[in-house]
Each structure stands twice: as structure tokens, then as C-alpha cells.
Amino acid sequence: VSIDRHIKNACGDLSAQAGVPADLTDRVLSAGRAPARRSRRPLRYSFAAGATALLVGAGVAVAVNESASRPPTPPPTPTIQPVVLSSDTSLRTDLGSAFPSHLVAAGHTAVAAYYTEHKGASGGIQRTNYLYDPTSGTYDKTPWAYLDVAPGMHQAAVLEGPLPTPRVGILDMATRRVTRWISIGHKVGGAAWAPDGRRLLLTTYDKDPDVFSPPVGGVDGASGSRTGFAVVDTATGHDTFHALAPHPGTIGTRQDLGWSRTGTLIWAPTETDPAKVFYDVDGRPQPAPAHEADAMEEAGLSPNGVLQPRFGPKPGPAVTITNVTTGKRAAILPIEQARAWADDRQLFAVGCAAKKCKGTGEFRNRLLLVSLTGKITPLTGYQRSDKLGSWVPLFTHR
Amino acid sequence: MDTATERQFREFMGERSAALMRLAYLLTGGDQHAAEDLLQTALTKTVTRWAGVKSPEAYVRQVMYRQQVDFWQHRWRRRETNVAIPPDEARHDVTPASDLRVVVREALTRITPRQRAVLALRFFEDLPEKEVARLLGCSVGTVRSTTHRSLARLRELAPELNDSVRVEEVLQ
Asked: If you measure CA to CA, which chain A residue comes closest to B103?
């Protein structure tokens, strides 16, 4: 490798971190119509990291007054920051095998990692995590018991086994080194990056959340062992913990918390309706944001917040996409599950081979890209999803 | 601006905005806000001259490069980015390729916009010196000397690059 190549690679790496502001075209057109008062990007303080790709509806921003001579203004109120989309939207597939070895991506989203499950020595389910390496372009097996990848795919939060564990590592995905260990006063079993790519939501447990204990003395061993959560600012290492008991009646021991679309609230899963209950980051119950608490496909609302995928109608396989603003049906797609939005028009989905979806055939499936017009593009090879050892993708905004 | 121009511009942005934003981001050394400003300014110039521009993408690129290199308006020239932590001292061990890549990437964010633009044109876009000179509106000699100084500065900021090159020379 010559010095030319080193510089070329570094330029490529740096430029790949760019995010395209969703309103750029409109800004330019309005500036072009009125050149005398050229409209620039509005001044703002953003909680989002500059290079972080944000696909979710909005981050929180605070407008600032540009003129020092003006009278004092009231305290700044949160406003919605325009969506910043990742710049690389190329389609990447790996059809060669059931397990992807090379990057799988479409639109603004990529499979940043995946895990397989197998029975551990303790009788519980253990995960083997595979993480995308931007240097080699492949997924590599990792020693971590749990991980989550930050938007932009430059950093991952990693947990050491056995779970739960008292510290979380911030891994640089390019060098594969932990750049920082953050110790938490409680034991952590799950981690989720906020859409701003800076805060981490850590779910704490008092037992391994993936071990299913048999009922003892009439006590259902499957009840959760969640103790609460901590929100960590990864830039400063500051964390705040709040107790949050497992939701009653929820099946399964792992009850990880997640972020709302804007990253302003967090949610906990339930087995009832609504499927998610919301809290602020201090653990106080909050009303659910519109259409976010509904039982729907894992993909959730589309990035523009308009389209909602739901399972059905029977006999399927089918997922119905509804426009939540008009209530009208936008599409019925021949897929088994809608897993993540690639953009506002395309979904990552799990689908089985046409005409072989009946009976156990439904479990022979693979990852697909499906557009709202019904166009299907295979992304990976087939696998048996009902057997231990099958892989589960982790989607991240790239 | 008429409707046809706006439609053409929107189509152009749909296809090319991501690539142009990547270039703007590179030229501004990874500053998202500065990159947005740079690209927005270049695009605004382009859209107001739309009918007379033969290749919009080439025009936008040229505007961005010239604005960053800025051979003429010295008051706009920015200094290197200051950082709180001084650069690491030169290490004598062989740096793994992935680390080297990160080190060079970081060094790129810390050289001047002019140095970064010339390196990007020569090594990222693979343009010959003559073409770089035409694009920037300067002489081939200026391109050559700026490239030389830019490489020297990059090696200062990323001494691992020297180690790597030496190892490669031995291996060849």
C-alpha cells in the first residue's frame, strides 16, 4: 500500500461520515429565488454529534438569536431539527450464504451487526455477536456478550460476559479497540444508543436476562429480573440510574428498554395493549408519542413518521402498510416480517420462498428489501429461522 | 426560476446530493455544519446559473474546491484546527493498518483547508497536476509545491505513515 492509497482510504473514510440534511434542496431553492437575502443553514446548537447520521424524525435543537442587539428573548424552547440522512445509500447484498460475511445495506440503513443464539453451559441462551468491520468490509466474530452499534456505525457499545456486567465499553469499530470503559453502579444486561449517537440507555438486571430458570416453589422463573436503567452520556461518562421493575405479566426475562423515535423518551415492552409504555429519562411515566405505542411490526414508523407496518391480513404472509395521517392503506406486502426501514419507501423484511411458505416452509426465509410498490430484492441467502444458530440482524443508520 | 429548472434541480439533488455532501464534508475536515454551508453556497451559485451550466456537478465541485483553496482571498484562509490534546509522539513499532487508517483520517482533519483540497484532488480524485491546476485556476508549479508541503505536514501529524511506508519499502 503506497502513501497515495493511505490518503485515498483516509479521504474515503472521512467523507463517508457525512450526513445530508433533508431540507438542503429546499434551502438552496429558496436562496436561489431570493439571492439578496441568502438563506444559510440556520444557526443552532445541536445535541447531535455533527457527523452522526440521524434518520429518525428529529433531534432536539435549540434556536439561538443571531443578533446581540435585540432585546432578551424568552428561554429557548425545543424545536424539531430537520432530519439528517446518511449520504451512502448504495445497495449492498451478500447472497452467497445464510450468514452474511460482507456488508448488507440499503437506503440509509445497514446491518451493522448480527447475532446467533445457542445454548450456554448455564442452560440459558447465549449470543455470539458478529460486528461489521469498516476496514475489512466484513462481519467479524466478537467476544462480547452483547452489543449495540451507534448511528453512523463508527462506535459500538459492548458488554462483557457473563451478563449482567458492571461496565460498558465504547468500541471504535475501525480499530476494534475499546476506547473507554464506563463503570455503572448497577449490573447491565442490555444497551441501546440514542438517535443522537451520544447517549446510551442501559437496562440493568440482577440476573442473567437470557437465562430461563425453571419454576421453583410455585414462583415463575420466567419473570423478569430487570432492576432499572441508566442513561449514560458517552462523551462525559456521566450516568444517572433509575429503578424500574419488570412489567407485570411480561413473558421472558429480557425486558430491554428502548428510545422513542426522537430520543426524548424511553419505552418498556409489555405483553398487553399498548405494547410499549413510555417514560422520561428520569423514569416518570409519560404519554406515548402518537402511533409509537401500537403493536406493530419491529420496523416501527417510517422515518418520516407517516407509514406504519402491521402484520396481516391472513392467510399471508402479508404485512399491511398504513398511512397514519390519512388512515388509508398504502400497501400490502408479501413478507413475513417488516424489520427496519431503509428509507421512506423501502423496508428490510423477512420473507420465505414464494409457494413454499406453508407449514414449516415459513421458517426457511431470508432477508429482503421490499419497496412499497412490491418490488423485492433478496439481500442474503436462505436460513432456517426456527433453529438455534440462525442469525438475527441488528440494523443501524449508516 | 421556472418550474422546469426547479424540477431538474430536484432530480439532480436526488441523484448527486449524497456524493457532493461527502466531498464538502471531506473538504471541511469533518465539520458537518461548515460542510453544509460550503455545499449550500456552491449549490446556490449553481442554481442561479442553471441554464448556462453545462455540467452542474462539475460546476458545484469546482466552486467548492475554489472556495476552500481560496488562492485569492487570503482573509478567508483558515488556520489548522486546534485540538486540546497534542499529537502522539512518533512510535517505532509497526502500526496496524486499521490504526494507520484512523491516524491518517485524523491528520486530514487537522491540516489547512487548502492542503486538504489539494490532497483530495490529487489522491482522492486521482487527478493529474495539470487538471488540478486548471480546476483551481493556478499554475502547475503551485499545485506541485502545495502538494509537497501538504504531504510533509500530513507526515508530521501522522508519523506512523513514515513507519508504514518504510516497512513497505523493505517488503518490496
From this structure: A10
Q: Which residue has the higher pLDDT, B163 or A259?
A: A259
| B10 interaction partners in chain A (CB closer than 8 Å) | 25
In this complex, the residue of B35, B41, B101 whose CB is nearest that of residue A18 is: B35
Asked if B18 lies within 8 A of A87 by C-beta distance, the reply is: yes
Contact B25 A15 (CB under 8 A): yes
Q: Is B163 or A393 the better-scoring residue by pLDDT?
A: A393
B151 and A CB contact within 8 Å: yes
C-alpha cell at A51: 457527523
| Residue B98 near chain A (CB below 8 Å) | yes
What is the pLDDT averaged over residues A78-102? 70
Q: What angle do CA A341, A53, B23 make, to 5 degrees?
A: 120
pLDDT of residue B33: 82
CA dihedral B62, B67, B70, B76 (to 10 degrees): 180
Chain B residues inside the 8 Å CB shell of A135: 97-98, 101
The answer to whether the Cα torsion of B148, B151, B157, B162 is positive or negative is negative
Nearest to A32 among B1, B105, B164 (CB): B1
The pTM score is 0.60
pLDDT digits (tens, 9 = 90+) for A291-321: 898 878 899 999 888 999 998 888 778 999 9
ipTM confidence:
0.82
Q: Any long-range contacts for A309-316 (C-beta under 8 Å, 24+ apart)?
A: A309/A333, A309/A338, A309/A347, A311/A337, A316/A357
DSSP A342-355: SSSSEEEEEEE-TT
pLDDT tens for A96-125 read: 777 899 999 999 899 999 999 887 776 667
